[in-house]
Amino acid sequence: MITIDSESLELKTRTLGMRIFQEDESQSSSYLSKHFWIKKILGLSFRFPKLKIEMFRFVDVLPSLRSKKEITEHFVLYLLNENTETHNWIRSLLRIVLRIPPIPFFFGIGIQAAILKTSGNFIAGKNFQKAEKRLRILRKKNSVFTLDVLGEAALSEKEADGYQKQYLEILESVDSFAGSETTGYGVCPFVNVSIKCSSLFSQISSLAKEESVAILKEKLRPILRLAKKKQYFVNLDAEQYDYKEILITLAKEIFSEPEFEDYPHFGIVIQAYLKESKEDLIRILEYSKNRKAPLTVRLVKGAYWEYEVIKAKEKGWDVPVFENKNETDFNYEECAKILLDSHPIILSAFASHNIRSLSAILTYAESRGIPKRDFEIQMLYGMGDSYKVVLKKMGYRIREYTPLGDILPGMAYLVRRLLENTSNQGFLQNFLSGRMDYSHLLKNPKESIIDAKLL
C-alpha cells in the first residue's frame, strides 16, 4: 500500500478543482454558448425558491390533466398563488387575462409544449428509436451512455413483463452503437444498460427476500444472456433502501451462476448516502475477489433522500441515510478511495456533478498510479454539459445516464432531478447563485463536519 501525504493530496485536490472551474468558465462565458444561458436560467430560478417549488408541483401533476383548459387552471392555481414571489400586479393581470376565451386553450397548448421541450433536455426519448439521434450526438461528442427505462416500479406482473420486454428490445436495437475501448484491465463496451429490479417484479418485498430474489433471477436471465451474447454491459441499479439487500443478494447469486461467472461486464450500484454503504462496498469487494471476472461498482450519492428520511421517521425507524449533506459527501470520498485501492479487483464508475468530489477522486486515482481510462465519470444526461467538456479534454471517460420513457413516468424523474440539483444545500445552487466562491466549494467535507460540530 502506497503511503500518501493527506495534506499534499488535499492541496492537489483543490488545485485540480480550481482548474476545472476555470476551464468550465471559459467554456460557458460566451453569450453564444448554450452553457451560458443554461446557467443563467438556473441561477434565476434560485432567486425565487417558492415559485420554483410551485413550478415543480405543477410539472408533477401535468401528465394527469386532460384538457388545455385544465392545464391553464392548474398553472394559475400553482404559479399565481399568494405564496410565490410573483408581483401582485403581474399575478392580478394574468388571472384576468387567462379567463378570456380562447386564451386559456392556447395558453395551455403553449405551457404543455414548453414542459415537454424541457423534459427533452433530461429524457432522451420515448424509446431507443426515438432517442437514437440524440445518442449519436453523444457519441460525436466522445461520450458513452447508460440507458435507463423510466418508471419507479411495476404495479402488476403484466407491467413487469412489459419492462422486461423493453430491456430486451433495447439490447436488440443498439447494434449500431456496438463497440468498445481498450483499458488497462481489458475492454469496456460502449453499450451499457441500467436495470431497476422493482420494474421486473411487482411484488418485490424485503419481507419476502428469498422469493423476490428467485423470481428476479428468472426475469433477469434472458436479459443477461442477450447482453453476454452481444458483449454489452448490464448494471443493476439501486433504488429504495428496502430493496438493498435484495439487490446485493441477487447480484452475488446470479453473477456467480456458471453461465455468467466469467463475464466481465456486469455491475451494481452503491449509494453513499446510506450509513451502511462502506460495509456493503466491502461485501461486494470480497465477492468480486473470488469471482472469475471483476464487477464494476457505480458509486452514487443517492436520489431518494427525502423519501428515506420521511418514511423512517413516519415508521419510527432509524434513518438509514446521512441527514447532513457534508457527511454524505465525505462518505462518498471515503468509498471512492476503497474502490480505487481495490483496482483492478473491482472496477469503478463515479457518478457525481460535484466538482469537489470528482477532484478528490481524480487526484487520489493519480496518486495511486491508476490510468485515466481505467475508471469512468458518470453524469446525468442534460446536466453539467460544460463540465463534461472540460473533463473529456483532460482525458477522462464520461458516461451519461440517459433515461428513456413516456412523459408520465418521466415527470417523476424530471422533478426529482430538478429538486436534487436545485436543493438549498446543493453544490450547483451554491455555484450558480454566487453565494460561495470556488475555494468554499472545494472545501473538504470533513472540515465542514468538524466546523458544524464546533458551533
Automatic annotation (TrEMBL):
One Pfam family cited in the UniProt record for this chain: PutA_N
Query: What UniProt keywords apply to this chain's record, in alphabetical order?
Result: Oxidoreductase
In terms of PANTHER family, this protein maps to:
PROLINE DEHYDROGENASE 1, MITOCHONDRIAL, PROLINE OXIDASE
- Mind telling me which Gene3D superfamilies this protein's record contains? 3.20.20.220
Q: Which residues form the Proline utilization A N-terminal domain?
A: 11-97
Q: Where is the Proline dehydrogenase domain?
A: 132-429
Q: Work out whether the entry's keyword set contains Repeat.
A: no
State the protein's name: 1-pyrroline-5-carboxylate dehydrogenase
